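Justification of computing resources. Each target in the renewal requires a structure prediction run like the one illustrated here; the chain below, 55 residues long, is used simply to show the kind of job we budget for.
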Amino acid sequence: MKKLIVLSIALVVLIGTSSSAYAHSGRTDKNGGHNCSAKSKQKGLCTGYHYHNRK
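Resulting structure tokens:
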């Protein structure tokens, strides 16, 4: 019984963390993109305008 509970909790944690990997704190414009913040540029995460969820 304990193994089942531990496995269930591990599964919930795994699903919760994998779905948040695509989260984005900023807003996007009508084209699905935005300009990088100064903080992101300093960290080298991006250099300017870029898209999110573009297909």
